[in-house]
Amino acid sequence: MSDAEHPADESNPNVAQDDFEPVQVFPEADEMDLRPGADNCYKCTTCDSACPVAEVDDEFPGPKFQGPEQWRLKRKSDEDIDASVMDCSNCMRCDDVCPSSVPLSQMHNTARGEFVDERMEKLSREYVRNRILANYRTMAELGSKVPRLTNFVMGLGVTKLFNEKVLGVTSEREFPEFATQTFREWWDERGGPQVRSEDKRVAYFHGCYSNYNTPEVGKALVRVFEEFGYEVVVPVQRCSGTPMFANGMLNDAKRAAGINVENFSGLIADGYDIVASCTSCSMSLKQEYPELFDLDGIEDVSAHTYEAMEYLRIHEDLEGALADSSVPEQSYAYHAPCHARNQGLDRQAVELFRELDGVEIEDVGPSCSGISGTYGWKEEKYEKSMKIGEEMFEHMHHAAGEVGMTECPTCSMQMEHGTGYEIRHPLQVLEEAMA
Amino acid sequence: MPIRDDVLVVGGGLAGSIAALSAAEAGASVRLVSYKKSTLRFASGLIDVLGYPNGDGPVSNPYDALSSLPDDHPYSLAGEQAIRDGLDLFDEVTADSYRGSHTDANALVPTYGGTVKPTARYPEASAAGLASDARSMLVVGFRSLTDFDARLVSEHLEAAGVPFEVRGAELSFPEEFRADAKVTRFANALDRDEEIRFAGRSVGAREALAETVKPRLKGVERVGFPSLLGDEHADEVRADLESHLGVDVFEIPMGPPSFPGLRLEDALFAALDDAGVRMSTGNPVVDYEADGDELQAVHVDQKRRKVPYHADEFVLAAGGLVGKGIDSNRSRVREPIFESYVPHPSDRYDWFDTDAFGDHPFARFGVVVDDEMRVLDRNDAPQFANLRAAGAVVGGADGAAEKSSSGISLATGVVAGREAGASI
After folding, report:
1. Which tens digit of pLDDT belongs to each residue from A350-391?
2. Nearest CA to A224 among A325, A344, A309, A129?
3. A282: nearest CA in chain B?
């Protein structure tokens, strides 16, 4: 008697339901079951055609293979995870284009974690290098204790040679400079929040980069939110985990996530929402945390996390606030980071600043910048990363603006590296307009 | 209540884009919200108005056949003028990149299955390939591109009785790509005119491709390639090939991912941007807020929380069964956002015909609209005073069989957008 003749009961847990959650299929199991997600894939290859790595690398089998196909192979015949999963840059564009909502990036993250755990030699140069890159915060914390010395040493030819030859970190790139004062030091020095409010409260997830490297972005966020009457708090925090997911260091990521969730989830009951200035950080808290980990309060954190400008657009009349503002003439070549695109935020800066007196802003198109966090820092990936970025560089040169704009710290490194342009964060322009 | 616009359009395909542009022309502030990439990625890029009405055809003039359509067909509701207005707007948006506006008659364009499709507008890139043209034709395919078989295409064209000589040739692309290389890989190599090793020297990919094809020309007057001749610089790629080969070069539309569809998507996006239409993409509309029979807002699911997008007028252009604007399970067919009325037999064995190429009821499933594209409930009354629908989400037509999908999107998009804009 075939299933077709006797339709399965709607309550059958083995039939994919509309509100399907991959982690809930077999609630008693420890391991995630991604099968219903894999079954949703009908092999249209839209993901492959949107993958920036597959576009420049003939050897990379693409997201469809990394996700549903690899998943099936592994279960059918106990195959090992294929090493090509390490060539995925975790841009998550496949998620964005899949017409069937297959949880591709979740599958890739899981596969990568398993590959690193089970197949990667822990003493290998690649593992050590990836671990150092993924744990950028640890390095940054040390480096920023003596920022000038670190900047000097990191800029030395001999350091770059060592990094490339011994660690496999490309010597083509300039290390981002450490700020002489971190955002947190500035925050403490100013005495924390300058505005107190019972009903308008946000907790700022600054992430590593705006703390150690670009505190001006963090300061802009604080000033803009305080201008709108928000009480801003800055809980103790770790890395969002993005570079760890991308390098398959899921244990490191889980530890960091545990601390972040613990420190932020408690604030939600007191009326705080979480805002981030980096789109990969907000992506991580919103989507990757609940997809990958089972921690107390994680759903709450996910549901209350916003990208900073997204938050203002939803809760404030941002357009109205800027209606009578103006800034001195300036023009920008704007690049939307992949992780902003995936959150549906790729047009908000253009939309807003298009109306702001004094600002010219041009979207340089939908291509990926190619750096993808730690990806473009790896010696063997550098060329690929620049090849992916080529289209963006070209469009930036054609755009009227000679200053770049983006929300993502590593996209901004790539934009600067490829064009020599100075790069600003939308929050900085917002701060200028509201001053 | 900060995210607010006059008109909000749900869906970023052909119908949604045209509705948004029409509303913007009426002076409204417009936002377009779309979820995943639209079905334009799967589309041929050909704009059909009507090729096979009621299973007959092909017809040479689609307008002559309109009166034979049933009363509940979207064309019957929108009217002939709406089709013409939709095409006018389309011609404006695509400017020089499309042809066919000089006549009401259908053009006959070869497809990658070797059939000939009656269509109202076709990309400039396909212009030299028309089947009504008597010039001899060579169809070129590449061995590593398994989706397109040049010999099959030419044999099918011959069998279809085209009035010219046609040959097919399967060649190796001058650059050795992996066995299952993506079409994007071919297109990019040509777009960037990548330097490749060819006959012992380093040449641009375009020249190398032309040199590979040259020995096969043997006097033909035009050469057709699968539609992967470049992306952003497609015109340049084609022109370079033509000058190297000394004959006209054209593209035959392919399956997904389809460059003609992607290029059309880019043209629509640019037009929307120029018209000041705001675009929010990447997240699905999942719910709505209404006050009585007046919609107030739709809710966009932004990663596990719902964000309201307010507007005065709404247009639903979320696509049909393929685009997932219409959904089904084992017990019923539904429109998932507004739960609008979608007429269909209660027994699901009556949803389809047993003949694969038969007259399938499911192909006509969709919401019911009036002549202003207002969405109707089961009693033929507007479900909401300010909700309209356009494109494949509207029921009553089998667009795939009739070859009318694009035309329906244009006609209903224009009416829904114009009426929504005028109601502000």
Report:
1. 999 999 999 999 999 989 999 998 999 999 999 999 999 999
2. A309
3. B303
How far is residue B250's CA from residue B258's CA, in Å, rounded to a whole number?
A: 15
In A, minimum Cα distance to B38 occurs at A99
Query: What is the model's pLDDT at position A31?
Result: 61
- Match 């053009």 to its residue by tokens: B107
Please give the distance of CA B294 from its chain centroid, rounded to a whole number: 32
What is the Cα–Cα distance from A412 to A428, expressed in whole angstroms? 14
| Distances A38 to A71, A130, B323 between C-alpha atoms, Å | 8, 28, 19
Structure tokens given for B143: 């061995």
Contact A316 B2 (CB under 8 A): yes
Q: Give SS3 for A391.
A: helix
Helix or strand holding residue B279 (H, E): strand B278-281
How far is the C-alpha of A309 from the C-alpha of A426, rounded, in Å? 8
Convert the pLDDT of each residue in A58-94 to its tens digit.
Answer: 889 899 999 898 888 877 777 788 899 999 999 999 9
Cα–Cα distances (Å) from B177 to B147, B173, B373, in that order, read 15, 8, 49
Distance, CA of A108 to chain centre: 15
| Digit-coded pLDDT (tens) for B81-133 | 999 999 999 999 999 899 999 999 999 999 999 999 999 999 999 999 999 99
Average pLDDT over residues B273-289: 94
> Which chain B positions have a beta carbon within 8 Å of A101's beta carbon?
36
**Shortest alpha-carbon distance between residue B176 and chain A (Å):** 10
Burial B322-359 (b: 16+ CB within 10 A, else e): ebbbbebeeeebbbbbbebbbebeeebeebeeeeeeee
Provide the strand spans (E) within B84-193: 98-99, 107-110, 116-119, 122-123, 137-142, 166-171
Maximum alpha-carbon separation in chain A:
76
**Max alpha carbon distance in chain B (Å)?**
75
Amino acid (one-letter) located at B408: I
Token pair of A332 as six digits: 């920008």
ipTM of the modeled complex: 0.86
